[in-house]
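Whether sequence alone determines local backbone shape is best considered at the level of individual chains. We regard such an encoding as a compact summary of how the chain folds. The sequence in question and its structure tokens are set out directly beneath this paragraph.
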Amino acid sequence: MQFLSAGEHLFGPYVWTRYDILVMPPSFPYGGMENPCLTFVTPTLLVGDRSLVDVIMHEISHSWFGNLVTNASWSEFWLNEGLTMYAQRRICTEILGLSFTCLEAATGKALLMKDIDHFGEGHNFTKLRVDLDPEDDPDDTYCEIPYEKGYCFVSYLRSLVKSDEEFDGFLKAYVQKYQYQSVVSGDFLNTFLQHFPHLKGTETKEGFEFDRWLNTPGTPVFFPDLSPGEALMKPAEKLAEHWADSAHG
């Protein structure tokens, strides 16, 4: 309930009346799957210490980004997942604090770079807006790119405005404008520029062009500042190094 209340505060009313969580059999192949009113989750989330609650934050965030406003095609999948990652981390910051959010985002960044390395910097599947040929199976494109590269793009847009609260207001207006509709990248980005008319021209800023964000493969040109999480990251990194040394020794 706390996550849902935070989401409503940030992004507008929860329109789906009720919210339930259904724990699926062990064969369920995903961490979670959003549906209006109901989230499916893997039983592996039930670890006893609430350490995987970010998955529930993520699926709740889809109540606005994915279920209420939906990408019009698989090429625009980042609109679902990039915005949901941003929303998840805003909810996380409100409830658990910025340090924990940055720790979780650093894990996401590592997974993003692993996928870019897997596909290769120039691969079509490392674009935000993927060019799908008729012979492409959309399931083959499923990776961290739309999630974490999308999060980087949304975070870049956030960096252009004065505060989290101003950007929250834009996201709330975007959801209100396009609720119960399917959208493409242009709808989202045009709404951003309409909401912040003083930022007109940023869409063509050299090196950060919106077209480059959408259509150029490889590593994002911007990463959000995750330094507030260093106090939590450093002990985790030392523990990982200890485990790695133990495994080799």
About this structure: The beta strands are 20-23, 32-35, 38-41, 69-71, 181-183.
